[in-house]
Amino acid sequence: MFFGPTALYKLSTHWISNLFFFVLFVVFGISFLGAFEITLPSSWTSKTDSRAGVGSFGGIFFMALTLVIVSFSCTGGIIAPLIVVASKGSVVGPAIGMFGFSLGLALPFALFAVFPGLINKMATSGGWLNQVKVTLGFLELGFALKFLSNADLVKHWRILDREIFIAIWIVLAILLGLYLLGKLKLSHDDTNPKNIYGQEYVSIFKLFLAIASFVFAVYLLPGIWGAPLNGLGQFIPPIGTQDFVLGAEVASSVENSNDKPIKYVKDMHIYEPSSVKKLGLVTYFDYEEALAASKKFKKPVMLDFTGITCVNCRKMETQVWAQPEVLKRLREDFIVASLFCDAVEVNLLKQDQYISKRTNEPITNLGDKSLDIQISKFKTGGQPLYYYVDENGNSLIDGGYGYNPDVEKFISHLEKVKENYKKTHP
């Protein structure tokens, strides 16, 4: 209600925020590997211990706030619609929604508090705990790359292209596997336990973890040459950032050779999903150009409100769009407009700039325009969301289709839109 519906979205997608989280994850990751210990001054410990149980709600609040901020990229789909409703003056609905959201995050902590005996049964600290920390350190370094990749994609730095990202993940997975097998030692590690013959051995649990780590590395390897890696498509950079892709790309559309988007293609083509790069799907990046194409080819428009840094958007593209029955319908029956709501580094053409009726502020970049269209016309600000309109911008179906990777449900939704379009455009 105070900052408007786009404030937290812009915060979570801003390159500075993502760089901050990258540095945070790297620092904690290196600490877990044993380079240094992160401790508070002893004076702080004394003061907090003396005030234990006094004003504790403040500590709970800030701990929860940090958790929410770090996990925002995954939970934005829940929060964004609530923020939009709140910005319109509603209080009860967003309050109920936020309560449900906070309850889901708090419940695991509450269960541990109610059953503290579970913690007491844990084994005492020792070498095994350091191995847990080191394992988490490798994982944190891997996750840190996602935040750096977000900033890299938004700013067009091209320092962490897809093959570089995958190569680093492969190295981290191999090193983790070697560590779990005891072939890599770090500063705080104990010696491995010995069997009845006096030889060091690896537990079955760590052996299976090492197997999983090596399998992950092998799975990633084809991605170096352009394999889609659909199971991880939501985390790795788009295939458009890869310099070398094994196998020729399909040049846009096969059936509609004249259906070629022009506006903002130069800046945005690297963010196109593999279903565009390899399977011949056409995507537009400008709302008005997509409506013009709809009028020309007499097809409904699927407005794909997406984001460069949107994890769930990539999952929908790699695991739903790429399915043959879905791809066939999108290619043959729809005009697809991918409106990137965080493309704030792409300046609009002068003739496309305008003053937003919603905020009375100038809209000068592609990201702000896409987000303004989504909020103004469809009253929501989360991604991914798919809305369907005709050549005049009239909605073809009530509501939209949010994040739901159920392929059959998505196909059914597309068929319903096609039926509605035919009814209004005989």
Describe, in plain words, how this protein is organized in 3D.
The chain has 426 residues and is mainly α. 54% of the residues lie in helices and 5% in strands. The chain has helices at residues 7-13, 15-32, 42-50, 56-70, 72-87, 92-114, 117-120, 127-155, 162-180, 204-220, 265-268, 274-277, 287-297, 311-321, 324-333, 366-378, 407-424; strands spanning 283-284, 301-306, 335-340, 354-355, 362-363, 385-389. It has a four-stranded mixed beta sheet, with helices on both faces. Helix 2 packs antiparallel against helix 8 (127-155), helix 9 packs antiparallel against helix 10 (204-220) and helix 15 runs parallel beside helix 17 (407-424). The radius of gyration is 25 Å and the shape is globular.
List keywords for this structure.
globular; 4-stranded mixed sheet; 54% helix; mainly alpha; 426 residues
